[in-house]
Every structure is written in structure tokens, then in C-alpha cells.
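Continuing the series of single-chain predictions for the mutant panel. This is the parent chain; the variants come on the following pages.
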Amino acid sequence: MKKTLLAAALLAGFAGVAQAETSVTLYGIIDTGLGYNKIKGISDAADGSRIGMINGVQNGSRWGLRGSEDLGDGLRAVFQLESGFDSGNGKSAQGGRLFGRQATVGLASNSWGQLDFGRQTNIASKYFGSIDPFGAGFGQANIGTAISAANTQRYDNMVMYQTPSFSGFQLGVGYSFNADSNRGTETGFRTADNTRAITAGLRYVNGPLNVAFAYDQLNASNKLTTEETDATPRQYTIGGSYDFEVVKLALAYARTTDGWFAGPGVNGASGSILSTFADDATNVFADGFKANSYMVGLTAPIGGASSLFGSWQMVDPSNDKLTGGDEKMNIFSLGYTYDLSKRTNLYAYGSYAKNYAFIDDVKSTAVGVGIRHRF
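Parent structure:
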């Protein structure tokens, strides 16, 4: 009897050790609401408005698995699988990928950092999401409208290394061997058959101060047209925020050349544009295109449960090689959140863009209210 009790105690102890060394977490977000969007100024046939359900406005709806295994000496094996979906109809997002938001496996250490392999967001999206008053969400209100490489840009087939934080400083660098496997016209056996991507950045986060710099580059597939292969889209982004407690101020600037990263769907040939700002929107290669982008934002807490925030964004293109227009695009946005609990909140936002997609007198208006639940 004593031996049986001893064996049971030992087995329970080993089970506890195994549980401490290996962990898997299920998590997710469901974000759904009602919204209104209107595009005006393109043509009588293309102008229009829409009212109906909206999904993934504050944050993209998702579910995911995150896990780690202790390998000893401070080393861990880590993985993250994250699936995006439309909560309005249940369909998969990110081009129908099962784990379109993230699919990575790697090694991590508190001493030397983390090395990941697979699909995930670029460095600009990681570093500037916390600077943007809209948290890189809320449709055309998010920082990625003006600073396209920060618009939740994801790359397939990427190797990424991020250092740990050293006195507030952190460095990240990544390389994608094929940035978008879904674009069959730009993929092939040879390395140069695929559009490749470089992403890098440095940030400093210490108390109320958050400062970041990022660089992104796309190397065109040789299967694209001659004009497109002559273009190498690049974006340099710098910005920061400072929390004064009563208000948080955010500023950002970017210089973009030879194209555009994720952002509004643009069809320069027909002069039409889409009214949605989706993840993984088509990258546009445009040799000779240049633009300066700016963002100024404010966030103000109201009591302990709500927050008011807003931003002004502006993009000043040097020519019409991207969309057929070269007007300055201005975006004015305002948002509000109210926490019902630690996991559930309500939100409302409005955003107005003038000279949308740099096309003269094209206007885009978006308004929405919704609820977000995290688990």
C-alpha cells in the first residue's frame, strides 16, 4: 500500500514537471459591429455607399495556439499558429489561409532573443502598432493608410530574428524568400522567380517613451513586367510616442520610393479604387514613384474605463506613377472605446479621407460601432 502511494506521488510529481516545461495556450478575439462606408468622386458608375456588418475593425477576429517547451539552459522551443476569420460569415481571412495571421516555429532565449521561421508580420507593423493611436486597426484610420509598410504587412517564408530588450533597446531583422505564396504569377522554382522581402528595425521603449525606426524593401519577381522588375519598393519609417498621462502624443514620418506596400486596393488602369483596407492587399511596384508620409496622433484616457483618440495622416506623392493621381491625401480620424470588462469593450470611430489614393477630389468616409471580446 505504501509503495502504491509512493508511486502515485512520483507520477503526480513528474506530471507537474512536464506541465511546467511545456505549455500551450488557446486565445482569440472576436470583433464585430455595424458600419457605413461611402466613396465619392470617382465616377457616377463607381461611386457608392454601403451600410452593414463590419468585422475585425479594432482588431482582426482570430483564434490561435501559442506554445513553448523548456529545452534547458534558458532555451525554449516556441510556436504560434494564428487563424484569422470573418465573424460576420465565418469564412477564413488572409486569402483563405488556415493560419493566415501567423504560422511560426523557432527558438527563444531571454539572453540572446528569438529566431522564428514561417509567416508573420514585418518589423514596421510590430513596432509602429503601439505608436499609432488606433493600434494599427480601425480601417482607413490606422497608421498603415499613410505609412503602408506598417499596415499589418505579413510575409510568407520568412526567417526573423529579434533581440531581447537591452535597457529598452530592441533590434529586429527578417528576410522572406517568397513574400506571398498565394500570388501564383510571381512564384516559381528559382529564387528570382519570387518576390522577396527585407524588413528591419530598431526601437527604444522605456516608461512613457516609445521610439522606433523601420526599413522595408521588396525585390520584384522576374516574372513581373519589365517596368515592375525595374522597381524596388522601399520605405524608411521613424516615429515615436510619449505618454504624459493626461494625453499621449504620437508622431511618425515615412519616405517611400518605387511603389507601395499593403494598403487600399488600387487599380490605376481603370482609375477605380476599393473602399476597404484589407490585410495583405496587393503590393504595387511603380518605378520612380516617391512619397512623404506623416502622422500626428493623440490619445486621452477618460476616467478609468474609456479612451478617446484621433489622428491626422497625410501622404504627399511626387508624381502620378502609382494611381494616376498626384494629389496630397489627407485622412482625419477619431475613435472611442469603453471597457465593459478586462476582456470586452465597445468602440466607435469615424474617418474621412480627401484625395483618397492620391486621386483629385475622391473622398472616402467610414463610420462604425462595434464590440470586441478577447479570450
